[in-house]
Write a structure and sequence with these properties.
Layout: E1 13-20, H1 27-37, E2 41-53, E3 56-62, H2 65-78, E4 83-86, H3 92-103, E5 110-112, H4 127-137, E6 143-144, H5 148-157, H6 171-180, E7 185-188, E8 197-204, E9 207-215, H7 224-237, H8 242-258, H9 281-285
Parallel strand pairs: 1-2, 1-4, 4-5, 5-6, 6-7
Antiparallel strand pairs: 2-3, 7-8, 8-9
Helix pairs in contact: 1-7, 2-3, 3-4, 5-6, 7-8
The structure holds 3-hydroxy-5-(hydroxymethyl)-2-methylisonicotinaldehyde.
The site of 3-hydroxy-5-(hydroxymethyl)-2-methylisonicotinaldehyde has 15 residues, from strand 1, strand 2 and helix 7.
Length: 286
């Protein structure tokens, strides 16, 4: 029998720029699992490699910027990419290289997860990198997905809060500042706020687009932000608008978290393939 390869349409293709997390919890590995789970074909450009376990990060080695650009250009010249997802980028030079590459593809939506630190407090971006992200990537971003801490830090660096007076008050102001700096939408996630539920708010140029509340799950998760941002990219690549992509991605992410497991001695890992486990639901009903 001859293989039907040429007859099979390609799934939507998403190109992720991210750092390797060998635990499989966050970073490139999280993106690949999420994108594949949601029916996309993941293309992966490595921006840095890390040494880490589920308890913390021990080292980060950024990849040479030219190698990052070369990886991306080879893929882009070969395959039709439907969405870009940007995670941990590793250096100012890598940020500049990616900015230059994606500028040649202005019609491809860009999901930027501004990874400044891990959930466990490991720092991944200094002031220069934040400035580079703001100056070079934000104007090309369709949707930025900071948690509330990242939203405040990015907005602070925009010069919005030079006197520090409003720093703790306005996530709304932070979101507007970030939109003025060039991105189309900002999804601020509320995991780090002290609210009983997790409140995620999507802002556009006219204000709040949608607010969603989720039951706060116990435990500390590694890779939830990567999962959410990749899931948004997957939905955009599959043809959803931004508001629907954000809703679908939150639903998916919540399910991965509620199915999360703890493979080591540190954080929980979201189960991006929760749907594939052999759970006997009828037995649960007994
Ligand atoms: O969750 C943010 C993140 C992204 N990318 C890599 C990481 C982490 C958190 O640890 O290690 C590679």
């Amino acid at each position: 029998m001859s293989p039907a390869v040429s007859a099979n349409p390609s799934p939507p293709i998403v190109l992720t720029f991210a750092a390797s997390d060998p635990t499989g919890g966050a970073g490139l590995q999280a993106d690949i699992l999420t994108l594949a789970s949601l029916g996309c074909h993941p293309l992966s450009v490595v921006t840095a490699i890390t040494v880490q376990d589920t308890a913390g990060v021990e080292g980060v080695l950024p990849i040479d910027a030219e190698w990052v650009a070369d990886q991306a250009r080879a893929l882009l010249e070969d395959m039709p990419v439907a969405a870009f997802k940007l995670g941990m980028l590793g250096s100012v030079e890598v940020i500049a290289a990616i900015a230059e590459v994606i500028a040649d593809y202005p019609d491809i939506p860009v999901v930027l997860d501004p990874v400044l630190a891990s959930g466990r407090g490991d720092q991944f971006a200094d002031e220069e990198m934040i400035e580079a992200m703001i100056g070079m990537l934000l104007p090309q971003t369709t949707i930025l997905t900071p948690n509330s801490l990242e939203a405040r830090r990015l907005a602070q660096q925009l010069g919005e809060f030079e006197d520090g007076a409003r720093r703790d008050s306005g996530l709304v102001d932070c979101a507007h500042g970030l939109i003025e700096a060039g991105c189309e939408y900002v999804l601020v996630t509320g995991t780090h706020e002290g609210t009983p539920q997790v409140i995620n708010t999507l802002y556009g140029s006219h204000g709040v687009v949608r607010t969603d509340r989720w039951d706060r799950l116990p435990g500390s998760y590694h890779g939830s932000g990567c999962t959410l941002a990749s899931a948004i990219a997957a939905h955009l690549a599959s043809g959803a608008g931004v508001a629907d992509a954000v809703m679908g991605a939150q639903e998916y992410t919540w399910r991965t978290l509620s199915a999360g497991f703890r493979p080591g001695m540190g954080q929980f890992i979201p189960d991006r393939l929760f749907w594939s486990r052999d759970v006997d639901e009828e037995a649960d009903d007994d």
